[in-house]
Amino acid sequence: MPVDTAPEQAAPEQAAPEQAALEQRFQDEIDRDGRIEPRDWMPEGYRRTLIRQIAQHAHSEIIGMQPEGNWITRAPSLRRKSILVAKVQDEAGHGLYLYSAAETLGVDREELLDLLHRGRQKYSTIFNYPTTSWADVAAIGWLVDGAAIMNQVPLTRCSYGPYARAMIRVCKEESFHQRQGFEAMTVLAGGTPAQQQMAQQALDRWWWPALMMFGPSDTESPNSAQSMAWGIKRFSNDELRQRFVDATVPQAQHLGLTVPDPDLRFDGEHWVSGEIDWSEFFTVMRGDGPCNRERMTARVAAHEDGAWVREAAQAYAAKHAVITAAA
Ligand code: FAQ
């Protein structure tokens, strides 16, 4: 089925009575905070919104393997290397759960990957920044996984059952990732002056891109209102970003690091950030960030190199289907 993620245009008042009853049942389920399951009737716009968001999320997980994967061969100890290999494998696994969740909506993962490779679907801007030092790996765990958890814990209560259930396991693993990043950052921040400098420079590089992960400000977010009405998103982009800032500034202070925001202030209740450079966010989102081309080239090459694995898996499945049918 071709993927069309444009918003649905049908006017509800034109719907036939049966259609109106289906819509009412769907809406009642949403209103009572129930779960919509793959075989339930759902509005076409709801289905398209979920495909768009879940596919982008899956793409982010698999492209997100690249910045940290860059450091597997150069991790500073065997312990750090084994942790990093496990983390990067987890990210591949998250991609697989998410492509499976998207497939329950009637799309094929091959088609979603094709859309990614042709630049027709997005992945998170955060993965278009380079990892220039080992401290960047620590900063990704602390900040990027920290932001991902803040965004994804509410998705465990998403109205679409398969996505919500996938998020429960993903969030447990992301929580480990965040803690290992903070632990690695703690070691660097408490180390030699050179290590402390590495930690500070990594925070300087990743702070603002991490804030951008939450998406455009609420006034510039075209999808939020409908996604919140459908119970896909539970909080707005700005609400989640604020929660992240409130949680993370005290962590930076604990580490003895300085958040690279001269306008950051505490208003008695919240840590209030200075203005985000939205032109940078939109530039990276359009494909002109520091590593967009490099990431896509590596992704397409990995897909092509893996063709024989997919063919072998299909041949194996076909062989076993014949054996099972004959038994
Ligand atoms: N990058 O109207 P909204 C991770 C797009 S996973 C690129 O606010 P929405 C794990 C947005 O798609 C990180 N594009 O959109 C890990 C839309 O464009 P479209 C990924 C962005 O969907 C850790 C347009 O802007 N997480 O980190 C971004 O309601 C470490 C307008 O925006 C998820 O995907 C962005 N940052 O809200 C892996 C979580 N922000 O599609 C490895 C699930 C916005 O209309 C290492 N997704 N856009 O053409 C969500 O929660 C939502 O989709 C948002 C965006 C909040 C990201």
Task: Provide a quick synopsis of the model.
With 327 residues, this protein is mostly helical. It has 13 helices and 2 strands, in the order H-H-H-H-H-H-H-H-H-H-E-E-H-H-H.
Task: For this entry, give a set of tags.
327 residues; mainly alpha; two-stranded antiparallel sheet; globular; binds Phenylacetyl coenzyme A
Description of the structure:
Helices cover 65% and strands 1% of the residues. The chain is built from 13 helices and two strands; from the N terminus they run ααααααααααββααα. A two-stranded antiparallel ribbon has the order 1-2. Helix 6 (134-152) packs antiparallel against helix 7 and helix 6 packs parallel to helix 8 (193-212). The mean pLDDT is 95. Bound molecules: Phenylacetyl coenzyme A (FAQ). The site of Phenylacetyl coenzyme A has 29 residues, from helix 2, helix 6 and helix 9.
Could you tell me the mean pLDDT? 95
What ranges have pLDDT less than 50 throughout 5 or more consecutive residues?
none
What's the total number of strands? 2
Strand content: under 5%
* Fraction of helical residues: 55-70%
Alpha-carbon Rg, integer: 21 Å
First-last Cα distance: 33 Å
Q: Cofactors and ligands present?
A: Phenylacetyl coenzyme A
The major sheet is characterized as: 2 strands, antiparallel
Order of strands across the main sheet: 1-2
Broad structural category: mainly alpha
Count of DSSP H/I helices: 13
Q: Quaternary state, please?
A: single chain
Q: What's the SSE pattern? A: HHHHHHHHHHEEHHH
Shape designation: globular
